[in-house]
Amino acid sequence: MELELIVMKIITHSGNAKSDAMEAIQAAKAAKTNEAHELIDKAEQELLAAHRVQTDLIQQEARGEKADISLLLIHAQDHLMNAITFKDLAKEFVALYEEISCHSLK
Question: CA 20 to 30 Å from 37, out of 24, 55, 65, 99?
Fold first, then answer.
């Protein structure tokens, strides 16, 4: 697969994951817990897709098929790492909003 296509797939899936995670926070804030959890699941699926693309690239390199390190590839890796972090934080926010919601009902 062409390196530019690989890079764009990583960026696209990572961006989708980050968007889903942000929507999950907003859903939890609006007390839409089920929707928030579904969005976190969607984010995790997008990250899994991005990770598969990344793993393919790593396996190619392990077989001796070296990829050129480009600014675009570094940018894609940056997007992926940020999306993973953002998803992890979104899970914490969702849990926090659930806790707040539980306590306000008492």
Answer: 55
* DSSP state, residue 106: -
- For residue 13, what is the domain's CATH number? 1.20.58.80
Residue 65 host element (H or E) = none
pLDDT above 70 for 105? no
| Phi and psi at residue 30, to the nearest 5° | -90, 15
| Domain count of the fold of the chain | 1
On the question of pLDDT at 26 being above 90, the answer is yes
Cβ atoms 80, 14 nearer than 8 A: yes
What's the whole-model pTM score?
Answer: 0.90
Q: What are the start-end ranges of the E strands in 2-92?
A: none
Q: Which residues are catalytic?
A: 75
